Amino acid sequence: MSLSVEFSMNRLKEFFWLCAGANKSILNNCPSESSKYVGIGATIFFTGVFAALAGGYALYTIFDSYLTATFFGVVWGLMIFNLDRFIVSSMRKNGEPKQEWLSALPRIVLAIIISIVIAKPLELKIFEKEVEAEIALMIQEDLALQEQTVKQRFIENRTRLNEEIQHLKNEITTKANKRDELRRIAQEEADGTGGSMQRNAGPIYKIKKADADRVEAELNELIAMNGGLINEKENALAMLEAEESSAIQQLQESQLTGLASRIEALDRLTRKSSAIWVAHWFIMLLFLAVETAPVFVKLISQKGPYDFVLKKEEYGVEAAYYEDLAKVNSIIKKRSTRLTQDEIDYVQNRLGLSLEKT
Fold first, then answer.
1. Has residue 254 been placed in a domain?
2. Can you tell me the mean pLDDT for 124-141?
3. 22 with 45, same domain?
4. First to last CA, the chain
5. Residue 313's closest CA among 15, 88, 23?
6. Residues 6+ positions from 357 with CB-CB distance below 8 Å
7. Residue 223 lies in a domain
8. Taking all residues of the chain, what is their mean pLDDT, rounded to a whole number?
């Protein structure tokens, strides 16, 4: 049982070494470096897992399909995993901190960008209930805005018809007031309370009575004419209001279910609620710390045996290259006139140079 557990632990350790982009054969000869690269590899692996989950959720809100979201989520997670692995494995310890930090700066910036991309979909999932409530509010606000836009289309015609109807009614009211005034004046002339102050129906009364009757006739004509226009315009106004009501009833709620709408809802929530704002930044900083941790571990750690052995192997390859190059130079100097076919083959096989026999 213990052997199987030990075997499993070794396989897991080697898997995390692979995730860290480390050389397995070198680490087997440098046991003191094993734990460091296991930690780096585990961080890179779980970052890839979080990226797959975040990408899958974000893509589900777009495609609304579990199969599609799972497939592309896994692809996204593998891409982030491979990118993190490359960032860490391409860093080298050369014993010069300033140069190491300068070379790591682009990698840190890239890690920050990746952490933000990973954190945002997971934030949406964490605050899903609050986001759904905010989206419902956004839908109602959008519906109210659409209704206001529809009303704005009809307001000019409604105002014009109301003003024309009121103008026609005012003409009738003005004429009726004039008629009432002339009747009052004729009545005062008849009972001696005004005008000539004589109580009789004399010629003056008849003249005033005729003026009142004339205005009465004009009023009746105006009522007949304006009444028809008023009815016509009121019918037009009723049709306009019916058309407006129909247009409002045809309005539909916006389908704010996409990723952009959810991000906007989360942004509104962070502006309105200080608690969500604080939680948002804690989540962001958490993923930022996780994503940049492997880079900073490589930067702050001392140059260990693994780095020395790796440098030795890389230097050996580089030295062999320059050694072969020196041999070629020596051959060229000794045989300044012509190279043999064997020498040409040697150069081509060792260095990949293309030489023609002269």
1. no
2. 85
3. yes
4. 70
5. 23
6. 338, 339, 341, 344
7. yes
8. 77
3-class DSSP state for residue 195? coil
For residue range 222-268, what is the model confidence (pLDDT) as tens digits? Answer: 888 888 888 888 888 888 888 888 887 777 666 666 777 888 888 88
Radius of gyration of the chain (CA): 46
Question: For residue 33, is it within any domain?
Answer: yes
Count Cβ neighbours within 10 Å for each residue of 14-37 and write b for 16 or more, e otherwise. Answer: bebbebbbbbeebbeebeebbebb
Average pLDDT over residues 41-57: 83
Query: For tokens 């140059």, what's the residue?
Result: 303
Residue 87's pLDDT is: 78
pTM of the complete model: 0.52
Percent of the chain exceeding pLDDT 90 equals 0
Concatenate the DSSP letters of all residues of 87-148 into one string.
Answer: HHHT----S-HHHHHHHHHHHHHHHHHHHHHHHHHHHHHHTHHHHHHHHHHHHHHHHHHHHH
Residue-wise DSSP of 13-63:
HHHHHHHHT--HHHHHT-GGGHHHHHHHHHHHHHHHHHHHHHHHHHHHHHH
For residue 17, the model assigns a pLDDT of 83
Task: Give dist(CA 140, CA 134) in Å, integer.
Answer: 10
Amino acid at 345: D
The encoded tokens of residue 288 equal: 């930022």
Sign of the CA dihedral running 284, 285, 288, 290? negative
Number of domains in the chain: 3
In whole angstroms, give the CA distance from residue 81 to residue 49. Answer: 8
Residue 194 structural domain: 138-249
